[in-house]
Amino acid sequence: MNAFVEALRALLGPAHVLQGADAAPFERDWRKRYEGRALAVAKPGSTAELAALVKLCAAHGVAIVPQGGNTGLVGGSTPDETGRQLLLSLARMNRIRELDAANLTLTVEAGCVLQAVQEAAAAQDLLFPLSLGSEGSCTIGGNLASNAGGTQVLRYGNARELCLGLEVVTAQGEIWDGLSGLRKNNSGYDLRDLFVGSEGTLGIITAATLKLYPKPLAQMTALAACDSLESAVALLGLAQARAGSGLTGFEVMNAFSLSLVRRHFAQLPQPLPESPWTVLLELSDAEGEQHARALFETLLEQALERGLILDAAVAESLEQSRGLWHLRESIPLAQSQEGLNIKHDIALPVSRIPRFVAETDASLQAAIPGVRLVNFGHLGDGNLHYNVQAPQGQDPALFLREQEPRVNALVFDAVMAHGGSISAEHGIGRLKREELGRRGHPVALDLMRAIKKALDPQGLLNPARVL
Amino acid sequence: MNAFVEALRALLGPAHVLQGADAAPFERDWRKRYEGRALAVAKPGSTAELAALVKLCAAHGVAIVPQGGNTGLVGGSTPDETGRQLLLSLARMNRIRELDAANLTLTVEAGCVLQAVQEAAAAQDLLFPLSLGSEGSCTIGGNLASNAGGTQVLRYGNARELCLGLEVVTAQGEIWDGLSGLRKNNSGYDLRDLFVGSEGTLGIITAATLKLYPKPLAQMTALAACDSLESAVALLGLAQARAGSGLTGFEVMNAFSLSLVRRHFAQLPQPLPESPWTVLLELSDAEGEQHARALFETLLEQALERGLILDAAVAESLEQSRGLWHLRESIPLAQSQEGLNIKHDIALPVSRIPRFVAETDASLQAAIPGVRLVNFGHLGDGNLHYNVQAPQGQDPALFLREQEPRVNALVFDAVMAHGGSISAEHGIGRLKREELGRRGHPVALDLMRAIKKALDPQGLLNPARVL
Question: What span is annotated as the signal peptide, if there is one (chains A, B) (predicted)?
Answer without folding.
Answer: none
